[in-house]
Specification:
Strand content: 15-25%
Number of strands: 8
Structural class: alpha/beta
Distance between the termini: 54 Å
Largest sheet: 8 strands, mixed
Shape: globular
């Protein structure tokens, strides 16, 4: 009898400790500095409401986001989480996409990923295929528990490198009912193989790993990570067109933002390390919910989107819920902010179809 009482008391104490630790974790949520003024690269719409929000991911990192909702929204609405491009911030492309989709009737959440922008996480300017995929699911956590959102009608949009992460998130999180990957990169493929798979040999990867390992040693000696550099401030004369396109967006008034990594010093130089061995598209064929990939037919990155689409499968007995849309004459960065080119109405039609409730 005494032993049973002791075990019961230990169990109660353990539960109290867990609850105390959980409360402690909540209380120790990172305090973020959120800019109060409108500092986006696009004008504010008078058709939507906007506010800053925060939420935490599964690793305890606090993420900052802009939440957009239709001006006269009533009831519980379908919602979309938006992120990207890789190295950008929510004040750039993802915020534009979010605002445009809010004008079309959706609650949207444009967020800064871990280690970036106004979001938390240390060290700064790091990337992780696992944590960044988790960032999407954390945004879904926020949306499915929000009183204005229908929890059965949540989708995601990933732009550029976040297009591949959106597909990876959809493969792991069935709460994501519809996914759009816009002008996507497969960051694991380009990190491991180089552009157009031009360095897809074990020898090439060994050289890359050796250089990254040496940089790790140097970073440890210096006590701080070296930045890899964003888009260059001055273009070389022989710069390829896609680099000129990036410059035209990230380094001019069109898209420059002081918190954007691509506009400034870039990510940590060792950021490619985890992506080299991470097969980002490995479970894409297992996604049952709807996926739409859009890509400019003139984009240097077109092969990422077209090859990702080939990995998707149509579920037996269902309509074709895997779609590919090629945008005539569009480049990679045209789908960042060219409102006359980005097919927002087609995106709205896709989400209305697959976020029905």
């Amino acid at each position: 009898m005494k032993r049973n009482i002791t075990l019961l008391l230990l169990a109660v104490f353990s539960l109290m400790t867990i609850k105390s630790q959980n409360n402690k974790n909540i209380m120790e949520m990172e305090s973020l500095e959120l800019t109060p003024e409108w500092d986006k690269t696009f004008p504010r719409s008078n058709k939507v409401k906007h506010k800053k929000v925060t939420f935490t991911n599964r690793y305890g990192i606090t993420l900052a986001a802009d939440m957009y909702s239709p001006e006269n929204a009533v009831g519980s609405l379908p919602a979309i989480a938006v992120c990207g491009p890789f190295g950008a911030v929510k004040e750039q492309c993802s915020g534009l996409y979010a605002q445009e989709m809010a004008e079309r009737g959706f609650i949207t959440l444009a967020f800064d990923p871990s280690f970036t922008g106004e979001s938390g996480g240390q060290p700064r300017y790091m990337t992780s295929p696992d944590i960044n995929t988790e960032d999407f699911s954390a945004a879904v956590d926020f949306l499915v528990t929000h009183p204005s959102v229908n929890p059965e009608a949540v989708g995601v949009i990933g732009i550029c490198g976040w297009g591949g992460l959106a597909i990876n998130a959809a493969a792991s999180d069935p709460r994501i009912k519809a996914t759009v990957a816009s002008t996507m990169y497969d960051m694991s493929r380009v990190s491991a193989n180089g552009y157009f798979d031009s360095a897809d040999t074990a020898e090439d990867r060994d050289k890359l790993r050796t250089a990254l390992a040496a940089q790790r040693t140097e970073d440890f000696r210096n006590g701080t990570p070296k930045l890899g550099g964003g888009v260059p401030d001055v273009l070389p004369e022989d710069a390829p067109k896609f680099l000129r396109d990036y410059f035209d967006y990230y380094k001019t008034s069109r898209g420059y933002h002081p918190r954007s990594l691509n506009s400034n010093g870039g990510r940590n130089a060792t950021s490619p390390i985890p992506w080299i061995n991470f097969p980002l598209m490995s479970r894409a064929a297992e996604i049952k919910n709807a996926v739409m990939i859009i890509h400019g037919e003139k984009a240097h990155s077109f092969y990422f989107g077209s090859d990702a689409y080939k990995k998707l499968t149509v579920n037996p007995g269902q309509d074709n819920n895997k779609l590919f849309m090629a945008i005539p004459r569009a480049s990679h960065t045209d789908l960042y902010d060219r409102k006359d080119i980005i097919p927002f109405d087609a995106l709205a039609g896709f989400f209305n179809e697959y976020l029905k409730f």
